[in-house]
Amino acid sequence: ALTHILADALMKRLFLPLFLLFALWLLAACAPSASAPPQEVVATIVVTKEVGGESVVEVATPTPPPPGEAEGSAAVQPSPQPTQAVKPAPSLPAPTLQVEAHAVEVEWPGRMYLGDSDIVRLSLVPSEDGYQITAEFPEHRTLTQDVPVVRQAGYELYAAARLDGVGFEIAPAGEQVSLLPENQVVTWHWSLTPRRPGRQRLTIHLQMRWEPLPGTPGEARQAAAYSRGLDVQVDSFFGLTRQQAMFVLWLGVALLGSGAAALVTRRRGATNRSPQGTRQPSIAVAARLQSPNPSVHIEKPQGLQLSSAEATLLQALFHRYARLQIQQEFLSGYSGARTFLLTPIRGDGRSDAPTIVKAGRRADIEREYASYEAFVRHTLPPVTARIQSAPVRAPESDLAALQYTFIGLNNRPPASLREALERNPDPALVSKLFEIFGPNWWMQRTPWTFRWEQEYDRLLPPHAVLQPDSG
């Protein structure tokens, strides 16, 4: 009974909610569906006509029918309304660019001598298919760098190159402009001569220039394509050019072999100033006696021979050194003396400057030194060879030696006047010798009065002997 009561109460409580849900569902199913409003479609008609040879564009829009008109009735066709003619704006063609692969090649001398001239080269080489560096002179330096070359349609392409250097005379000067054809090598050359010795610098520039062709709108343009600094070492000998230095070198060697000996022979027998005023050597010099150092090692080139007396004399002259390196012997003299170019080396391995040693009979060496003091020392230019000290002799020897300063170029062996003329028998070399040294040496002279007794009494036998008579 209790179960029936509980079931009856539960059904009464659930009936009302279920009834309401069913009524709502029924109302939703019976409601009319909402229809979407119709969309109005407006058509636009575009008509193009030819009027007077020009295109005229007409745009027309149809008028919608009045509301309430039957859907099946025929629509009124709209009449096109003319509009203003529209001309298309002229379009400019885009510039056509063409990029070509090129390489800049620079060739220049890394070292020069004062007074010489040389060449600097700049080349613009197409490099699309590769290229090979080729130097015009094997001793020159070269460098390369890739440079893109841009060509534009309607423009002519030029390249302008310039070489600058304060320490050089450069020809041609200023910018050198050249047309740049396609797939062709363009080269510029400059000749340069150094003005002063030392480390000098050059600057090379390259510019691209675009010039508009006739009928092409636009202006000329330019842009830097390449710029580089170049170092050049300019060598000289005491500020002299190569030709001057070589001439002084030959002259110094020639004077060692023949100049002083000729003066000695000319003035042999004279002891003081003559009545005519001609200078005569009045210096009587005795060779200084010096004990030899047997530990001095003498290194000789192959084929050169020294007598024991000559070796002892060299060991006495260079007794403070450990070694002597003989580089060369000069064979241009006429007095019978021997002349060597050698380098003295100290005990710790340090080398002194190369020097010239002349070894010969004691009387001849002493006379040569006296003539040098009287005629040469205060007359010749300072770049010529000089005697460093009084002559030296070894004990119990009839030989003596003089030591001269050596004047020469680096890495270039000296040559005598005879060797120079054998290689190049040019009389201008001898003429230049007299032109440079003649005014201060041979041309400073006074007329000579010939005296029989002074010239021939020492050589010829007497014709008659006069003896006073006491009667």
Through-space gap between termini = 219 Å
| Rounded radius of gyration (Å) | 55 Å
Q: Give a short account of the largest sheet.
A: 7 strands, mixed
- Spans where pLDDT lies below 50 across 5 or more residues: 33-39, 69-76, 267-278
- Beta-strand residue fraction: 25-35%
How many DSSP-defined strands?
19
Quaternary = single chain
Count of distinct structural domains: 2
Structural class: alpha+beta
The best one-word shape is elongated
Mean residue pLDDT: 77
Helix and strand string, N-terminal first? HEEEEEEEEEEEEHEEHEEEHEEHHH
Arrangement of strands in the largest sheet: 13-18-19-17-16-15-14
Helix content: 10-25%
Q: Please, how many helices?
A: 7
Describe this structure in words.
With 471 residues, the chain is of the alpha+beta class. The protein has two domains: 97-235, Immunoglobulins (Immunoglobulin-like, Sandwich); 242-439, no CATH class. It has seven helices and 19 strands. The protein has a seven-stranded mixed sheet with strand order 13-18-19-17-16-15-14, sandwiched between helices. Strand 18 and strand 19 form a beta hairpin. Helix 2 (242-266) packs across helix 4 (362-376). The chain is elongated.
